[in-house]
Amino acid sequence: MDDNLWLKSEAGCYVTQYDVVEYAGDYTKDLKYCGRASEEENITEEDATTQFKTECQICPELGCDIVAYLPEETDLTLTCWTKEGQVIIDDPYWLKTTNNCYVARKALYSKPDLTYLDNCGPIPFLELLYHTNNTGTEDPDGTVPAPAPAKRDPLPVPVPTDLGVHYLINVTVGEDFANCRTCPKETCRIEKRYPFNKEVWLQCLVNTNGTWWSETTDFCYVKNSDFWESPEGDYYRNPLCSYFEDPDDN
């Protein structure tokens, strides 16, 4: 907000001048300087790569706004960790990236060494609509944000994530077997064959001429009608596979 002044609180942490009630005086005259060490940015970093397609949320909950759709083999730089987000399968850990959004640890090839990363600290409920900095930098969608109002209104109380919202959806085969093909069409080559009642993990959805398919974690496609469950239903909120494609490749 065209203001680089930060204020150190009695708790030993910093808030921006913009985020506190307007002060009639001048902080730079009424408070002492915190010292040169206070201006050093000691940010921890660690490299990682996505194993599966994953959404990068503005907070570590599947109900939060999505900043980016990351395909498999996306290289990331992680900056901190939290286990205060939504549990994904059996893993509560999420990692914040330099895109300023969180990915579930379950989506990564390997578990990062958390001893090299800071804890992210308290996680605020954020929405992209309100999450602009008015510094001329781009929003995730590539647009320059419009100037924010002088003071922002309080955000609404976060709505609890629907219990049906999942990532890496667990379903079971409901036919004698389910063919997993190299592409979402009956004419595509069979890559795998899952037996009856086999547990399968899904990443995303494809609609081919009115027939719904799902891409599994084996990176092949199964018709949704071959499962007991209906992955394309509202219960799951499964993303479309096309969200993770690079538009320049089309």
Distance between the termini: 38 Å
Let me know the average pLDDT.
Answer: 85
Which CATH architecture of the largest domain would you pick?
Roll
Largest sheet: 5 strands, mixed
Shape: elongated
Helicity, in percent? under 10%
CATH class category name of the largest domain = Mainly Beta
Total domain modules: 3
Radius of gyration: 22 Å
The helix/strand series, from N terminus to C terminus, equals EEHEEEEEEEEEEEEE
Number of helices: 1
Q: Determine the strand fraction and express it as a percent band.
A: 25-35%
What class, by secondary structure content?
A: mainly beta
Q: Please mark out the parts with pLDDT under 50 across 5 or more consecutive residues, or reply none.
A: 133-163
The CATH superfamily of the largest domain is SH3 Domains
CATH level-3 fold name of the largest domain: SH3 type barrels
Strand tally: 15
What would you say this structure looks like, in words?
This protein folds into three domains: 6-39, no CATH class; 46-119, SH3 type barrels, CATH 2.30.30; 169-249, SH3 Domains (SH3 type barrels), CATH 2.30.30. It is mainly β and 250 residues long. The chain has one helix spanning 27-30; strands spanning 6-8, 14-16, 46-49, 54-57, 66-70, 75-82, 94-97, 102-104, 118-119, 169-172, 177-181, 190-195, 199-208, 211-216, 221-223. The strands form five sheets. Strands 3, 6, 7, 8 and 9 form a five-stranded mixed β-sheet that branches. Strands 10-13-14-15 form a four-stranded antiparallel β-sheet, with no helix packed on it. The protein is 2% helix and 28% strand.
